[in-house]
Specification:
Trna Endonuclease, Chain: A, domain 1; alpha/beta; Rossmann fold
């Protein structure tokens, strides 16, 4: 079934994937937020927009609970001949593999790829963490796989290619390889050639080529006959080396962190992966014209790679800013025209439309736009419409693992769908913050009265607690970064 491609969907991949039919995608790569408790301060593109990025999954159980239903949906849309790549780091990789074994099946596990992303990492408490892990899974059938060859290391050639002959100027040096194989043969390859009986070599062997082919190789100077009458050898020349297949240890793809900050490829995106890394994955596990999907596409490296390599693609990301960044990158780096060569769908609504939607939908929109978690209860929420869990939050005892309300640090979000939030609204939110003993909170409305803003300032000076006022326009125009940091 042909599906629409060259599309960036803005939203949670759990919901966006429902738009895709079963077994419709050839290759999936995801690089979801790591369970690593890291804060990121980043400048975006030419506008130098400062934004804060936080990995909010402070418990491994919560992280796996978050990823499992999304990976189930990703497996659903992957073709039986497709491949699934999950990029993660050491914090939760072992738990991720168990989850993927359960979803795809243990026999579908293909590779654990180790990508050495940095060359050094000082750690006085143990060995430095210098690598990421990329798990590769099939989906029931025989997956597409194209072998990539990389040049042989110079040390390999220096060690083995040491012999010279009259062809050295055109063919390079050579090394002398065995021209026999283990085991006896009764056919042509088991016959005596030039007085050499392969059955008498070692415990009995056979020629790798029939005698007629050995004669041709000898005429071409490709066989070395030892003067002492030893077993003939096959000459392999340097210029005939096709390369060594890429294995599961990748040390030849530098991360962007190791490059200059002014490097052309770098966008300043905190977890941006190098284009060379995605090129290798996409070339290996897809062919031109096939469909590549990235469910957490961030700044869009996988999409750029797929576009450059002649693949169709679909990108999904929950961040409106990320969707805008990748759209801009596709225009700049790939020469595409938005609206003609690709489209961005489901970006946040307009201010006029947001004024008309039901209050609970408006609350959902505002909380999700801030990267928060919506309260499950629509009533009885004690004045808190949502919560933001910062990266430095840590678990406290007494709660079931995997529930986000077990965190000891969180910031309340209050949402009012009104033209101007007034002083009484702020007074109520102050009482909530005092009751919950919160040091910081976020208040969303279309605007704020002068009295409301004055009270927010007074509350900070009196109680040393911060209320961050955010207008809908702030959120739609992506000017919330400094206030969220």
């Amino acid at each position: 079934m042909e599906i629409p491609t060259q599309i960036i969907y803005c939203g949670d991949c759990l919901q966006q994937l429902s738009k895709l039919p079963d077994s419709s995608v050839d290759l999936i790569y995801i690089d979801p937020p790591f369970n690593s408790n890291r804060n990121y301060e980043v400048f975006w593109g030419e506008a130098k927009e400062k934004r804060a990025f936080e990995d909010r999954h402070a418990s491994t159980a919560a992280y796996i609970d978050f990823m499992r239903p999304r990976c189930v949906q990703l497996a659903r849309v992957l073709k039986p001949t497709g491949s699934f790549y999950y990029h993660c780091d050491w914090h939760a990789s072992h738990y991720v593999k168990v989850m993927l074994d359960q979803i795809f099946g243990e026999n579908s596990f293909q590779n654990e790829i180790i990508w050495k992303r940095i060359t050094a990492h000082s750690d006085t408490h143990g060995f430095g963490h210098v690598h990421d892990v990329v798990f590769r899974y099939s989906n029931g059938g025989k997956p597409t796989f194209n072998v990539e060859l990389k040049p042989y290391p110079q040390e390999y050639k220096d060690r083995y290619f040491i012999f010279e002959d009259e062809y050295v100027k055109t063919r390079g040096k050579h090394w002398r390889a065995d021209i026999t194989g283990a085991g006896l043969r009764n056919g042509e390859t088991g016959k005596i050639w030039r007085g050499f009986d392969p059955s008498q070599i070692g415990h009995g062997r056979h020629w790798m080529q029939p005698p007629a082919e050995l004669d041709k190789l000898l005429e071409e100077g490709r066989i070395y006959l030892p003067p002492d009458g030893g077993v003939p050898k096959w000459k392999r020349y340097e210029n005939e080396l096709k390369g060594v297949p890429v294995d599961s240890i990748w040390v030849d793809v530098p991360s962007l962190a190791g490059l200059s900050k002014s490097a052309k490829e770098s966008l300043g995106y905190p977890t941006q992966k190098p284009l060379a890394l995605l090129n290798r994955i996409i070339k290996a596990s897809s062919n031109p014209g096939q469909i590549v999907l990235d469910g957490f596409c961030g700044c869009g490296t996988a999409l750029v790679s797929a576009q450059n390599l002649g693949r169709k693609w679909i990108g999904i990301d929950i961040s409106p800013t990320a969707c805008r960044v990748m759209a801009k990158r596709l225009v700049k780096d790939c020469g595409l025209i938005e609206g003609k060569n690709f489209v961005v769908r489901d970006l946040p609504w307009s201010e006029s439309r947001l004024r008309k939607i039901p209050p609970f939908e408006f609350e959902n929109w505002a909380v999700i736009a801030l990267g928060g978690i919506k309260n499950k209860a629509q009533v009885g929420d004690m004045g808190i419409d949502g919560r933001i869990y910062p990266a430095h939050a840590t678990p406290k005892g007494g709660k079931k693992a995997g529930e986000l309300d077990f965190m000891d640090t969180w910031y309340p979000i209050q949402v009012k769908q009104k033209d101007k939030a007034g002083r009484p609204d702020i007074d109520t939110f102050e009482a909530i913050m005092m009751r919950e003993n919160r040091a910081k909170g976020f208040f969303v409305s279309f605007d704020f009265s002068h009295d409301a803003l004055t009270e927010i300032d007074r509350f900070f000076r009196r109680e040393h607690r911060v209320i961050v006022p955010l207008t809908v326009r702030d959120i739609l125009e992506e000017e919330i970064a400094a206030k969220l940091s």
